[in-house]
Specification:
It contains 11 helices and 12 strands. The chain is of the alpha/beta class. Helix 5 links the parallel strand 2 and strand 3. The mean pLDDT is 95.
Length: 429
């Protein structure tokens, strides 16, 4: 398309070589997009059925004040989530500030002093290290309250190590958890088949052990969710996949009714649980975002595959590879240089609809051990279902690309990232 190529060159300074590279990469992977479209269509109808089953109407867009008793919108929203995720109950609240908070509520609502907690997918995401107690002291971590933590590394093939897991489980094991998404690791996301196998393995050893999944970045990547394949409870963020780019804030926890009750008591106070808590008029945007989430996620995962193909063609290590099965929207690229990570993120920032004129810089973000750089010119602050790129500035200098409310915007982000690396003097084919 000569007109488009000329427009991108004249208005956004995209070199012809960069444009042609991305077009060539797109042609190489577009056959994979058909399967993704089938998954998206199934999930769109699944979400719609959740709305129909709970008779969503205009009354659910209103909100209460004060304690928030008998809020019909809040109750309907949580029933829709339960229906879609196949669970008995759910908490979906704007007072859950992010995914880390949702996971903290999930873990602390379940665990008691003396319980053993096993993380089965290697190191957790950076912000959970202080929650668990791996890093930091006297901050009210799980370990501060007498929780016994054990971490099982993935095997050399990036799979759950069942031999080690079997030998680690004891009579005190109360909770086994795993992180579905890549996070800041260098591994493929854990697939639904792998989660199902893990759930079956643990339950055969002891059916009383509670299974929990960090589902951040994974919603709607499959026609099933972890709670459909034997997991008891899972948690995630509304400014990632399920918020569809419209939720202003919030998180969710969905699972067994008795577990959700315990978590609700941790969220507010024992005896109050989920009966209180304002939605601050956000049920409309949370429901509307959820309705369009399958389509938004579809565009984001296509953008991740495109980025993988482009950087593979340029000779970089990428994880996952373009043809790998996807179970989250994150694409990792190993850039090997700190300055290259910064350049990449500057390019993605320049592609943003908001604050495109601002250059991201590394900073000491709360909850992270290393300085982190984040490109996130988003309508919703920190929304990583919108086009974004980030990474901790530590060797081997990986950068993580995710999001894009439309595929076309994610594709443009790929072009701008490559263009920025060319501009800043990094050798690219």
């Amino acid at each position: 398309m000569t007109q488009l190529k000329e427009y991108l060159k004249n208005e956004f300074f995209i070199d012809e070589e960069v444009y042609e590279l991305v077009q060539k990469a797109e042609r190489a992977v577009e056959s994979k997009f058909y399967k993704l479209d089938e998954t998206m269509e199934f999930n769109q109808y699944k979400v719609l059925k959740g709305f129909h089953a709970n008779k969503i109407s205009d009354v659910h867009f209103r909100w209460n004040t004060g304690y928030g008793y008998d809020d019909p919108g809040r109750e309907a929203l949580e029933k829709v989530y339960s229906h879609i995720f196949g669970t008995e109950d759910a908490l979906v609240r704007p007072i859950i500030v992010n995914g880390t908070h949702a996971l903290t509520l999930m873990f602390s609502g379940i665990l008691r002093p003396g319980d053993q907690f096993i993380y089965c997918s290697g190191a957790p995401y950076d912000t959970l290290e202080e929650v668990i107690g791996i890093r930091g002291e006297n901050q009210g971590s799980l370990m501060d309250f007498g929780i016994v933590y054990r971490q099982i590394e993935l095997n050399e093939n990036g799979k759950i190590d069942y031999d080690v897991l079997k030998n680690t489980i004891t009579r005190e094991t109360r909770l086994c958890a795993l992180q579905r998404a890549t996070g800041y690791g260098w591994r493929k996301a854990i697939t639904m088949d792998e989660i199902k196998e893990w759930a079956s393995f643990v339950k055969k050893i002891n059916p009383e052990i509670i299974l929990a999944v960090d589902n951040c970045y994974g919603e709607f990547l499959d026609v099933l969710e972890p709670t459909d394949v034997g997991v008891d409870v899972m948690a995630g963020s509304l400014i990632k996949n399920p918020g569809g780019g419209l939720a202003l804030t919030g998180g969710y926890v969905a699972g067994r009714k008795d577990i959700i009750k315990s978590i609700a008591n941790r969220m507010t106070a024992p005896g109050i649980g989920g009966e209180c808590g304002l939605t601050f008029g956000q049920t409309r945007t949370m429901l509307q975002g959820l309705f369009q989430a399958p389509k938004v996620v579809n565009g984001a995962v296509k953008g991740a595959i495109l980025l993988a193909q482009v950087f593979k063609m340029l000779g970089y290590d990428v994880c996952p590879a373009p043809n790998d099965e996807r179970s989250d929207i994150i694409q990792g690229v190993r850039l090997n240089q700190k300055e290259a990570v910064i350049s990449f993120c500057k390019g993605v920032q320049e592609a943003a609809p908001v604050d495109a004129h601002v250059a991201p810089v590394p900073w000491d973000m709360p909850g992270y051990e290393d300085p982190v750089i984040m490109a996130a010119g988003a309508f919703i602050q920190g929304s990583s279902i919108e086009l974004s790129a980030d990474g901790p500035l530590r060797a081997p200098y990986n950068v993580y690309f995710q999001g894009g409310l439309t595929y076309e915007h994610a594709k443009f982000g790929v072009m701008k990232a490559v263009q920025a690396l060319r501009r800043d003097g990094f050798v690219l084919q």
